[in-house]
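Review the following:
>
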Amino acid sequence: MAKVNIALDAELVVEVLVLAGIGNPQDAVEAVVRDYIARGHRTEARAVSREEFPRSGEIVPPEPQQG
């Protein structure tokens, strides 16, 4: 896997270390990024499932094509 080096505010990294309970700055920041990505995937999955299955129980006809 390719590596990327970035500069971060030390206070941000310390906050992540404390909140994540991880002692290594690289591992702590990596955990935050992985969590952010996982949340995005979960949000996408919920949005798709809501579009596929309306909660009202009614069958929603497709919208007519325009043009």
